[in-house]
Amino acid sequence: MDDKLVAVFLLLSCCLCSYCFLLRRKSIVACIPGPPASSWVFGHMKDFLLPDQYGDFEYSWQREYGQVYRIKGCFGEDRLMVSDPVALQHVLNTNLFTHGPSLEQSMTLVFDPQAVMPAHGETHKRLRAALQVGFSASAVRRYQPLFQNVARSVTERLQKVCALLDSSTPTDILPIMSEASLNSMSQVLMGYSTEELGKDFVSNNSKVMALAAAQSEQQILASAVSSHLPLWCWRAITQLPIPGFDIIRNAKVFAKRVGRKAIAEKLNAAREGVATDPQARADVFDLLLNIDPTLSKKPPKAALTQEEIASQTGILFIAGEDTTTSALVFALLELADHQQFQEELRAEVHQFAKIESDDAELSYDNMPLLNAFIKETLRRNAPGSFNDRAAIVDTVLPLTKPIRISNGEVLQQIPIRKGQIVTIATASYHRNESLWGDDIDAHEFRPSRWLDGTAYHGRALGPYANLLTFLGGQRVCLGWRFALLEMQVVLFELVGNFRFTPSKDGHRLRSQFANSLMPILPDGNRGAPLTVTRC
Ligand code: HEM
Ligand SMILES: *[C@@H]1O[C@H](CO)[C@@H](O)[C@H](O)[C@H]1NC(C)=O
Ligand SMILES: *[C@@H]1O[C@H](CO)[C@@H](O)[C@H](O)[C@H]1NC(C)=O
């Protein structure tokens, strides 16, 4: 190329770059009030993601700046933290926002390309519609006996642990709840026991979960840098023989293999008429394959191909495991801290257990304290503390009430640019005092707020109890009814059989966000020691 041409080209690129830079600088988001950042490299990301206790900074920002404010991401990026229900409704219910770039990138790494969560547009719509067969209200009702089997095995496990310990030695309930959650996934998704899944699956899977949960300064920087790479470049990098990537690639292949095996076995059994046991119960894969396990007939055509169903194995396990583990563990921790409520709940459980001698008839939705307890746990300890979204196009964010920006202007709505990151601040939204109670403290655990009418005043958001625990809109959690029934059945069983009290050494557990909210011991590991006694 001619030197002059190169010079012109360079000059043009410079102009373009500074134009883009100026454009970015001029985004109105930069003028929205928010806390000052002490570091250009990390912005507020260390305060937001790695505090001693989740929310240490976020909740004081919320108190000072309200439901929409600006924080700094890495390298000077402006992000919006949003807990305003009107703005959130816009983010969730229009198709103008997608997953934030770092989530988008980890999904291409972790999930099968045919899986529902990384899918977009029409493909996503079609997969969701087809998967609904296994997750609708009527489908989930059919899984009740499967969950009850899981719950009984948790009781047996906990009884054994209790028998080995004297009554004052604490039991770490976290691994037990984690096993309960893995069991529910394998039993209710595909009719496998955890042993049938195989040691390799379980170890592969737990390594991926551990990687996903790793939170550190390096992790924050790596994710900030990688989120600026184009997707093709990121795809190429993920093919490199780097140990973390290796584990994830293996697990992805392995999950699909387990899914294929389960599907082949189910189809064989149906064809050969083996499964004519009238006690047989349909699981999620049966419903997706359109198999009725109590009838021996050739399965009619299903909406998804076998390969498409097998491709969902990984995402279903990953989306359902740590999340429900977190929910169950925090439920028991809250019970231990609220003895009087625990007694009242146990009385309700025993009363319902007495009325219904047949477990199949138990109607968990009719138990007021149990459901208030679950709602309050999912409000105060939402497993997903926040979710990042990015605008797909230039758009505006409508607001409940106007905000004043740094140049004195008052905005009724915030104009935002394509690519703008908007953080759905679920944990903050769940702590807004005027939404969740009048003069009471929304930070407290108080299940009675769900029974005395103080719980929620505002615009309906989310599929359940106006909570954002399962988000909402097109990408609302596919398994929210599944997770709720699992919690109802497991907690009913545990509260009926055991009494939970804080462990005597009383060390303070910290809640930290590590992919899901988790209790952390003073030594930095996950754990939830409680004193468990039979009752
Ligand atoms: C208490 C337990 C659970 C919580 C708190 C939870 C929460 C969530 C949230 C917040 C999302 C949205 C993620 C995003 O779009 O950024 C989500 C999506 C999803 N969840 Fe759950 N989840 C739970 C249990 C489950 C279970 C048990 C399953 C499956 C059996 C499941 C399957 C899914 C799937 C497939 C998606 C992706 C949906 C899509 O992108 O269309 N979840 N979940
Ligand atoms: C709580 O919500 C109300 C109504 O949406 C809002 O006016 C108020 O500013 C919020 N408070 C905080 C601290 O975000
Ligand atoms: C994952 O499973 C495979 C079996 O295909 C096994 O060879 C491998 O060691 C497992 N990886 C981990 C990290 O457990």
Automatic annotation (TrEMBL):
Record localization: Membrane
Principal subcellular localisation of the protein: membrane
Keywords attached to this entry: Heme, Iron, Membrane, Metal-binding, Monooxygenase, Oxidoreductase, Transmembrane, Transmembrane helix
MF terms in GO: heme binding; iron ion binding; monooxygenase activity; oxidoreductase activity, acting on paired donors, with incorporation or reduction of molecular oxygen
Pathway: Secondary metabolite biosynthesis; terpenoid biosynthesis
Superkingdom classification of source: Eukaryota
Binding-site positions, heme: 477
SUPFAM superfamilies: Cytochrome P450
Gene Ontology cellular component terms for the protein in this record: membrane
Cofactor: heme
Keyword Iron in record: yes
UniProt similarity note: Belongs to the cytochrome P450 family.
Name of the featured protein: Cytochrome P450
